[in-house]
Write a structure and sequence with these properties.
The chain is of the alpha+beta class. An 8-stranded antiparallel β-sheet has the order 4-5-6-7-14-11-10-9. Strands 1, 2, 3, 8, 12 and 13 form a 6-stranded antiparallel β-sheet that branches. A 3-stranded antiparallel β-sheet has the order 17-18-19. A hairpin with a 5-residue loop joins strand 18 and strand 19. The protein is elongated, with a radius of gyration of 28 Å. The relative contact order is 0.08.
């Protein structure tokens, strides 16, 4: 998942710079930075070698399918320096996770030098995935499949662009590169590349201004400046995870770098914070997208767990996520007051309640069955988090129904919420332990869960992991001693 992406397709593993002085046989690849800086709008590396200071800065402009890379090279000596710069990109045009299962295979990359535009272009040999890269400096020469500091393997290819630079004593110069991608055509990738280099200053200013504006919404001033700084960076980190996915919409991804796509559970947590910091449109568009995808894939009220950026739904949803979604949507309405937003989602909310209280309650004991937040092998039972979230979802749905003048529906949901609350407090509570139980079920389910946990932990080698295994083994022994047919927390 590392490298340069235009989701749902990866463009490249990365890029590298080698600097060689005139008269030298071998140059030096810039591999070990002395300093790394994260800016709200990009990132930088600082290298020092042979009386040269090199600052590499890169950023991805908003709403553009590409990245701009700038090298600021300063000659710190008193001598004129004649330099040759080799810039290598290693392609990896390949689809996102779970594309193979969705009928989207990867094929070998093809790289060519475009003499007319003085740049490299690449594409997947059979898929319509394209990229382009080049520089704003005159190109001296180029090499395809040139070995950079990291060798290509498998279906990857590489392309090297060589330029030159003369630096006077104490002089500084900047050289820029751009890498762009397209899921349409080579021409589209080149058009984006050209725009990136031509408008790089404007694009950087726009991104900086956008982030400055973000920090002025729900601005806080705290005596604890470390906490205030943390608050601001969390907001910036959240902006980095926003995605405008062609054909799907605008939403909050779960996390970089492994999971920048759509999740049900994660968003039902994260968007409550997004609402509190004033980004109402992001929250509403994400909730709406989750509903739309869930309706398309499930159609029965169930909220999906995860959709990769290619539209593939890997997990159609753990039981807890559906209840969690209802609660979060209600909170979004309380923050925004957007009745149209709630009205659009309310019909699916009623389906969700039916799915939770009827479809997922086979034994009709008020506790929905199925996996919850804890993804433990075998923990497919009547779980405490699922039960509590369902009780809270019933209360929220009752309020929604009342708002839309469906009084009988509102009363029915409220009655169910009261009954479920009493049953949770009675059947999930373990007086001897002084805590609520993880799940309510049979002896056989308890044995299965303990075995599943042990299986998951078997590879653990630390003392803490070994201790946890011993704990589950003792639980397994205890569960096996219960009378057959036992049902309890």
């Amino acid at each position: 998942m590392g490298g340069i992406w235009t989701h749902p397709v990866k463009l490249a593993d990365g890029y590298w710079m080698k600097i060689r002085e005139e008269g030298q046989q071998e140059g030096v690849w810039l591999m070990e930075a002395e300093e790394y800086i994260t800016y709200p709008y990009g990132s930088g590396f600082i290298y020092n070698q042979n009386d040269l200071q090199v600052k590499r800065f890169q950023f991805a402009p908003d709403q553009e399918k590409g990245v701009i890379i700038e090298y600021t090279i300063q000659n710190t000596s008193g001598q004129v320096r004649n330099l040759f710069l080799d810039f290598v990109v290693k392609t990896d045009l390949s689809p996102v996770w779970f594309s193979k299962e969705n009928g989207i295979p990867d094929y070998p990359d093809q790289v060519i030098w475009d003499t007319n535009h003085q740049l490299f272009s690449a594409r997947d040999s059979l898929q319509e995935w394209y990229m382009a890269w080049g520089t704003d400096n005159p190109v001296l020469s180029y090499e395809t499949d040139s070995p950079g500091p990291e060798r290509t393997k498998g279906m990857e290819k590489s392309g090297l662009i060589r330029t030159s630079l003369q630096l006077g004593a104490r002089e500084t110069q900047v050289i820029s590169y751009a890498v762009s991608g397209s899921l349409l055509s080579k021409e589209d990738a080149i058009e984006t590349y050209t725009r990136l280099l031509k408008e790089k200053t404007k694009l950087l200013h726009e991104k900086q201004q956008s982030l400055a504006n973000l920090l002025e919404v729900s601005h806080i001033s705290l005596p604890d400046k470390h906490l205030e700084n943390t608050y601001n960076w969390v907001r910036l980190n959240t902006r980095w995870l926003e995605m405008d996915l062609d054909g799907y919409g605008h939403f909050l991804g779960a996390g970089a770098i492994e999971y920048p796509w759509l999740f049900g559970c994660d968003n039902s947590y994260a968007l409550q914070g997004v609402l509190a910091t004033g980004d109402f449109e992001l929250a509403k568009s994400t909730f709406t997208m989750l509903k739309n995808i869930s309706e398309k894939v499930n159609g029965n009220g169930r909220i999906i767990h995860e959709m990769s950026s290619n539209g593939y739904v890997y997990n159609k949803g753990n039981t807890q996520e559906t209840a969690h979604f209802i609660i979060a949507v209600w909170k979004a309405f309380l923050w925004t007051g957007d009745i149209t937003f709630l009205q659009d989602l309310y019909p699916y909310v009623k389906k969700e309640i039916h799915w939770l209280t009827v479809d997922m309650d086979a034994n009709q004991n008020l506790f929905p069955e199925g996996y919850g937040i804890m993804e433990v092998h075998g923990l497919n039972a009547e779980l405490i988090d699922v039960a509590v979230y369902t009780q809270q979802a019933l209360e929220a749905a009752s309020q929604m129904a009342k708002l839309f003048h469906e009084d009988s529906v509102s009363d029915a949901y409220a009655r169910q919420a009261t009954l479920l609350k009493d049953k949770i407090n009675r059947d999930f509570w373990d007086e001897a332990e002084g805590i609520y139980c993880d799940f309510f079920g049979t002896k056989e389910q308890a044995v299965s869960v303990a075995k599943g946990a042990i299986r998951q932990l078997r590879s653990g080698t630390s003392d803490a992991e070994k201790e946890t295994i011993r704990f589950y083994e003792s639980l397994l022994t205890r569960f096996r001693q219960l009378p057959d047919g036992t049902q309890q927390g």
